[in-house]
Amino acid sequence: MAKVAVIGVGQSAFVRAYPGSIRELAFEAYKDAMRDAGIKPEQIDASVICSAPEYDKQRTPAGLMAEYLGLNPQPTFYVESVCSSSSSGLRTAYALVASGLHDVVMVLGFQKMSEISSAESQERMGRGADIQWEAPFGTMMPAYYAMYARGHFEKYGTTEEDLGLIRLKSSTYGVINEKAVFRKSLTLEKILEPKYIATPLKMMDCCANADGSSCVIVASEEKAKDLCSKPVWIKGLGMATAPINMAGRDSFSGLKCAQLAAKRAYEMAGISPSDVNVAEVHDCFTIAEMMAYEDLGFARQGEGPQLIRNKETYKEGKIPVNVDGGLLSKGHPIGATGGSQIRTIVLQLRDEAGPMQVPGAKIGLVHNIGGVGIYGNVSIFGVE
After folding, report:
1. What residues does the Thiolase N-terminal domain cover (predicted)?
2. CATH topology of domain 124-207+234-382
């Protein structure tokens, strides 16, 4: 397979209510990525636009973005896998470049969730479940992940305090991430206040909706070496799916789609979990990060709590995870989330992550989940 590299990354600040339009929001990440890559619009052969369309008032946003960003008449594609949309977009861009069809492809993810009310947003999230057999009964994202938390608690003895320690870590790094929504240090006592959203998940166990955009530019080996002094290579890509109906799942203590995606990504990259120096995982809820530790092989099944209790997932630990604050601190603008995770890892591998930098990071991993484990994307990056 041909080599493909990331040559530019960008991200808007993630905010609760962006005052402009979706095209203006997208431009903020695009501008940063284009400046980072040092290229002009005419050098982009194709674009992949990613969002969850149920939150957008604009139909066919790919056409809108291509026009506004000066990318006509190049081809544009629209990719959606809910919360993992821009990681699926990266997979699409990789295929377009590795096949030789295009040399430089831009992946742009965005979401302006403040365009609709919180109640409308929750209703649309519920429709991420089967609209015939589950959504009509009032299923919501916190309740689904609470079910997984209960499963993990019952099977392995995990506690609410274990999940609280994950949120404590998130706040530690959210403070130093200028792109994050929440930049406030928290205490474990505050985190464990019994403000339950869906037992055992409390308010601080849940990420918040946000408005934001992210942009990743990938290129062929020849173009990357010509255009970029610090290319970051895409080493492995894994993707898998699981039944949308919970009745079709055989486990509620881990996400099978993440486990299979990780296995495929590790095989493609030719590495094992112990080779990863820094990771970004999909922590929409604290239990999601806990399961990711185990699904990705950073800990054996049931031993994820030991990682966070021993601070092994802090920057100084053996496998730093979400040292940009994760979704819990950054916020979760659905279509932009995967691209933001990729940006963090690219900056880490280029030694450009500032106060969040993990010293000597050479291999990074992104774990991005769509829905309640419906889609799983794992992407591995390296500097060689």
Report:
1. 21-186
2. Peroxisomal Thiolase; Chain A, domain 1 (3.40.47)
